[in-house]
Structures are given as C-alpha cells and as structure tokens.
Design a protein that fits this description.
- Among the domains are: 132 residues, no CATH class; 61 residues, no CATH class; 73 residues, no CATH class; 62 residues, no CATH class.
- It is built from 28 helices and no strands.
- Helix 23 packs antiparallel against helix 24.
- The protein is flat.
- 38% of the residues are buried.
C-alpha cells in the first residue's frame, strides 16, 4: 500500500470535499490551443494514473514549447503533481526537448520553490509502483529542475535515489550535482562525489574540473585548486583560459597579487588554450583596484601590450575609476592618452573620467571636466551628459543647465539626453521667469519631438501662452510619444 501523499500521484480519484481537477471546466477551444487541449483531455481521462504516460503516447498532435507551457499553466492551478508527470513525460518525448527557459518556467509554475517535496513524492511513487521503472533520462529531467532551483540538497537526494533505482549516473549527472554543491559552498561533499566518479569508472571531464577549481578558489582553498589544475592533465583535460581564470580569481581574492601576476605570466608563456584574454586581465585589474592598488594595476597595461592583447572599455573604465578613487588624477589622464592608441576614442575615455569623478563625489571636478570636453570638441556619451544635466537640475542651477544643454545639442553626433531632463529644465525656466530661454528650449523640444512629462505640463503650456507663444504652446502640448 502506498502512502497517501504518494498514491495520489498515480490515482486521480479526488476526496469528496475537494473539487474535481479543474481541467474538467476548461473549454479547450477558447482557452488554449487545440494541441494543448488534446493533451489536457488525455490527462483528465486517465482515471488509472498508472496508465497516464501510455495514454499520452497515443496523442498524435505536435508537441512544442508553447503546448507544454499551456498544459503546465492549466495543471498549476489545481494539480502540480499531474503537471510534473506531464513535464517529465514531455521531456522524454523523441522529437522534443525542454529549453532552459521551459525548465525555469516549469519550476516557477508548478511551485517547486515553495514545495520541493512534490519532486520527492514523484520519485518515491515511481520507485514503489511495480510496473514503473525509472529511467536515467527521467532522472536527468528532474535534476535539471533542481539545477534551476539551485537546490543542492534535493539534487544530492535525487542522485542517491537514482543509484538506488539501478540507474547508473553518468558524468553529466554528477556535474549537475557537483555544480549545485559548489554554488552552495559545500565543497567537501562535491569533492566526495568527484572521488566517487573515479571509483565508479567515470572520469571527470573539463566541466567537472572547472566547476571544482572555481568552487575551491571561491572559498580560498587555493592549494587544492592548484593541485586539481596540475592533475587534470592525467584525465586528458588540458587546462584552458576558463580554468586558469577561475584559479586566478581565487588567488587575487585570497592569495597575493604578486602570485596572480606570476600566474598571468605562466598563462602567457604556455599560450595555446591557456593564453589570457582581455577578460582575464580585467579580472586581475579589478582585484588590484578593490585592494586600493590602482598604481600597481597600471603595470598590467604594459603586460597586455607586450602580449599583444588590447584593453577593452570595461578594463579602461575600471582602471580610470580606481585611479580617480585613489586620487591619482595625473595617472588617469596618462591612461587615457595611452589607450587612445589602442582604438578606444578620447570621447569614451573622458566620459569614463567624468562619471568616475561624479561617482566618488568630486562633483565640481566632474562638471569642469565635462565642460572642458565640450570646449575641446569632444562628444560626451548620453549617460555622462544626462548625469551632469540631472545634477545641475537638482542643484536648481536651471540657467546653467539650459546653457549647457545648448552646448551639448550643438555638439554634432551627440548621444541623446534622457527626455525627462528637458521637461525638468522647461519647468524650472518657466518658474524662474526665463521666458526667452524657455521658448528656445520649447522650440528645440518640438523639433526633436520630445514630449513634456510630469506635473509641469499644464504650467509650462500656460506660461508659453502667457508670453504670446500660443502656437508653440499648442505644438509642444500636442506631442505624444
């Protein structure tokens, strides 16, 4: 006899005081597609739960992601257990495979985040029914649900049940559970599974090693991480850039930055699959910056140049911000001059500089740098321009903001400023009775098709009409986005 919580998975008989499965009330023709309706009909008609999968196998209609989603939405209302059975059955369908999105969708719809016990009940029901033999593929579908929920405890339990059901886990299965354990920080359990793979005649692959090395590095167990990096060649896995980058990140966080630079040089020397890329260098730069060693991080630019790797915008933005934060303004300007030779425009570099100054609280310096950019013919990007303009408005420097936006607009090819800033300026100009400037800005907004936004709209239109700009007031008031 099956426990009640489990037997209900295979029997559709409902208690007298509970409404029948809501699928009975579904009008398939109007609430879902015909294909989903057919599958739902078979779910409803399978009075004997043990024959549900066989009944679904007789459906000839096409099974696709849209159909699966519709069926799950209906099942989620009243019977997530039935939804899980359908999801697993469809995941084993010969011509269909669940996407990552569909796994996430099923996890959310069927409420596994709130009630993971549903999955446990399902597996126990399969194991206790004599006429059902769980398959390795079925367990893989379930483990992918565990992966979506980042549920290491459930994943480990599923792996245990898989072995108890005489389903031999393969390397892919072990990798899913090992990854879950590493993400949880349970490195010892993950190491046990890795050793278990060896004893089961299963060899760890590149994914296993990268996940374990990353997990060990993230908790500061650098000796073991280095040992795995050296030992993985024995299983035919050659360390690559991803492997070394994971190790490098751990060394930067828990070891010495000098050792990180040594490892970086080793990667450059080994070349091939191990050679560092711009992401690798950026990782080291970020860690130097976080530890307040922005000057030392400058040496990495020389190292990159010698190795033939060009810096990207992320690395340069990180380096400029670190130098500004540490008060090394001269060096920040030197960096801009150096990287301009690598193809990163002065416009972008100085935009980074303005934003960095602003974010560390050097607001006046940021404004001065921004004005020098415009005076020198440089074009700040949209984010930088909007940041400075918004700050001026917050400081009630409305007239300064107007003159600055005029200079920005005259800069050819400038990226757009956030549209709400125009409305804020318009409201401020009208409020302070700068009517000539307000009319000019209104003409600019009409020309660019920028809509007035917020509670200021009525007051601005009345102000324009009051100074004899009736046509302009009508034009700006009629703009709709």
């Amino acid at each position: 006899m099956l426990p009640p919580s489990i037997s209900r998975l295979f029997l559709t008989t409902q208690p007298a005081n509970k409404p029948k499965f809501l699928l009975e009330k579904v009008h398939f023709s109007t609430t879902c597609s015909s294909s989903a309706g057919e599958f739902l009909s078979h779910l409803l008609k399978s009075k004997n739960g043990s024959g549900l999968e066989k009944s679904l196998n007789t459906v000839k209609t096409k099974l696709d992601a849209k159909c699966v989603n519709e069926v799950l939405e209906k099942c989620a209302i009243d019977d997530p257990h039935m939804g899980l059975r359908f999801f697993i059955w469809s995941g084993l369908y010969p011509s269909y495979r669940h996407s990552s999105y569909m796994y996430s969708r099923a996890y959310k719809l069927l409420g596994f985040d709130r009630e993971p016990r549903i999955i446990e009940d399902f597996i126990e029901a399969y194991r206790l029914q004599n006429n059902y033999v769980p398959s390795a593929k079925m367990f893989k579908v379930i483990l992918n649900l565990c992966r979506v929920g980042k549920d290491a405890t459930l994943g480990l339990w599923v792996l245990k049940k898989m072995k108890e059901s005489n389903c031999r886990p393969d390397t892919t299965v072990y990798n899913v559970v090992i990854r879950l354990l590493c993400e949880k920080g349970d490195i010892d359990e993950a190491m046990c599974l890795m050793r278990e793979m060896d004893s089961s005649d299963l060899h760890p692959d590149m994914i296993t090693y990268v996940v374990m090395i990353k997990g060990l590095s993230e908790v500061g167990r650098l000796g073991e991480a280095c040992g795995l990096t050296k030992g993985m060649r024995g299983h035919g896995c050659v360390p690559n850039t991803v492997t070394y980058s994971a190790l490098l990140d751990g060394i930067c966080r828990f070891g010495s930055l000098e050792r990180a630079l040594e490892l970086l040089r080793e990667m450059e020397k080994d070349g091939g699959q191990c050679k560092p890329n711009v992401v690798t260098y950026t990782t080291v730069v970020q860690n130097f910056i976080e530890k307040g060693q922005s000057i030392e991080a400058l040496s990495i630019l020389d190292q990159m140049r010698d190795f033939g790797c060009k810096p990207n915008r992320v690395l340069i933005c990180t380096l400029i911000h670190g130098l500004c934060k540490d008060g090394h303004m001269e060096e920040a300007h030197q960096v801009i001059n150096r990287v301009a030779e690598c193809g990163i425009p002065y416009d972008s570099c100085y935009s980074f500089l303005v934003l960095s100054l602003f974010r560390i609280g050097k607001l006046k310096e940021a404004e001065m740098c921004f004005r020098r950019m415009l005076a020198g013919g440089l074009k700040p990007d949209g984010l930088t321009s909007s940041t400075i303009m918004r700050w001026l408005c917050q400081q009630r420097r409305i007239l300064d903001g107007y003159h600055l936006i005029d200079a920005i607009e005259q800069s050819a090819g400038i990226s757009s400023i956030d549209s709400d800033i125009y409305s804020i300026l318009m409201a401020g100009l009208c409020e302070e009775n700068h009517l000539v400037e307000a009319a000019k800005l209104a003409n600019l907004m009409v020309g660019k098709g920028i809509q007035l936004k917020g509670p200021c709209t009525k007051n601005v239109i009345e102000c324009l009409r009051g100074c004899g700009k009736e046509d302009l007031a009508s034009s700006i008031g009629s703009i709709k986005c």
